[in-house]
Amino acid sequence: MFTGFLIAITIVCFLLILAIMVQNPKGGGLSSTFGSSAQIGGVQKTSDFLDKSTWTLGGILIALILLSSLAFNTGSNTGSKVLTGEETPAMPTTEISTTPEAQQEAVETATETATEEAAQ
Q1: Which of 56, 55, 36, 54 is nearest to 46 (CA)?
Q2: Among the four 31, 41, 71, 112, which has the fewest Cβ within 10 Å?
Q3: For residue 36, which of 50, 46, 23 has the smallest C-alpha distance?
């Protein structure tokens, strides 16, 4: 199901790119090529048609993205533990002392270990 949404999103993106590329930012675009009296697909003003199709395709794209995220979340086996009420065991905490004496002892232990490994 998620793959279907991805294919539909790709097609809508391609159509949206085409609709945007055909438009002219100055207002001419495809309509200036054919004149104002030309009819393309029964639409008299192609700029209005392209504008409406751009907004429609954008809305469809947003809807498909939202629906695909819902399909992606419902298809996964790992649900939210907050929603299901399952408790996770707490991780054991280790306390690290930052006193100068503890730091010096850690350095001496590391030095002794390194010396023993080098001797072997």
Answers
A1: 36
A2: 41
A3: 46
